[in-house]
Amino acid sequence: MNIFSEENCRKLFARGGFSAHEKELAAVREILADVRARGDQAVFDYEKKFDGTELSAATYRVSEAEFEEAYRSVAPELLSSLKKAIGNIYAYHTRNRRTDCIAKEGGRTTGFVVRPVDAAGIYVPAGTAPLSSSVCMGVLPAKAAGVERIVVTTPAKNGKIHPLTLVAAKECGATEVYKAGGAQAIAALAYGTQSVKKVDVIAGPGNIFVTLAKKEVYGEVGIDMLAGPSEILILADGSVPADFIAADVLSQAEHDPLARAIILTADRAYAEEISAFTEVRLRTLPRAETARKSLESGGGIVLCADLQSAVRLANEIAPEHLEIATQSPEDLLPLVRNAGAVFLGAYTPEPVGDYFAGPDHVLPTGGSAKFFQVLNEDIFTRKMSVISYTKEALETDGADIVALARSESLEAHARAVLARLEQKEKEA
């Protein structure tokens, strides 16, 4: 890995965003319009074009027979591991659910009630590998929120979805699973087709076409976030074995040539040791070519003045995954303001969060952790305000409300209150 000084590392942190993808956006808009106009047939045509999958109204939705076949294909030991992960993730998402909050004082009732959306669409990518973990991380927060209809859509290869993906969908409680990926899948969820009833919220990561499609349909439906390539940023002080850090860097670099893996440390000798271990590990990594491209284009080790300086830089970067691999990681946590997820200590590598611990792994990328949050049950709920005034409370506050309405030249607003206040005068 290349080693940079804090002064010359800015290029390393630059992200492209989504505004530069004009060609992809034009293609996405064409697909969205086509699916909106032609429904199922447009989806089927794009699936044949992009994935070589022949679909019909009879095969678009995964059947019970296909689920049963999937279960027969999954080893019992792997199913056991999956169920443990599902238990942890669901328990986490049900631990701190939002609840109604109503307060009554002086004849005034104010507050909110929490309601789940009616239907959620969960996109599960499958471009380079089957991602059953993404099924769990998308479906379970929706289930924890109380969503009754949870629709999963994921690309099929040769008309089939990976067995573990289907088993995960069934175990997590998805109500429907469809064989479609890309912008056409997002369009089906957002607008509805002959086979797919539209949803209210779409969540889950995907490639640039999926992300741009989510961006385009926002407003027609809600979305969780706009996700880009995976990222990891590691704050390291030399107390954690360099080989651990090298392993963690590669755990993200193997995702995608555009993935980012960056280390911040104040120790040059330690940085050189990490770089050497990374090279050794690359030699035996099955996805070494992808990981190497990632490290060459968006990876590196930055030498900072001290840990405090490293934390300030981390907050500026706002990474998707932030590992604090230091002697006392809990001491630095209060200083962290912007990150998708934070992993503390030598024995909490990022894959613990990807698969098993409980917190979601669908996280904001590209610096959007400054304003987006991790996918959680709140994404699938809405707060609805509740207001109730007694006659006496309105008599107390009425003059102020009338004055404020008239200050905005909204006389009908004022008169809606006055009608009730004048009723009292008539009764008197």
Characterize the structure shown.
- This protein is an alpha/beta fold.
- Helices cover 47% and strands 17% of the residues.
- The chain has helices spanning 10-13, 22-38, 40-51, 64-73, 76-95, 132-145, 163-172, 182-191, 208-217, 242-253, 268-282, 288-298, 307-317, 329-332, 350-355, 391-407, 411-427, and strands at residues 3-5, 101-105, 108-116, 119-123, 149-154, 176-179, 201-203, 222-223, 231-236, 260-265, 299-303, 321-325, 341-344, 381-389.
- The strands form 3 sheets. Strands 1-11-10-9-12-13 form a 6-stranded parallel β-sheet, with helices on both faces. A 5-stranded parallel β-sheet has the order 6-5-4-7-8, with helices on both faces.
- The longest helix has 20 residues, at 76-95.
- The model has no long low-confidence stretch (mean pLDDT 94).
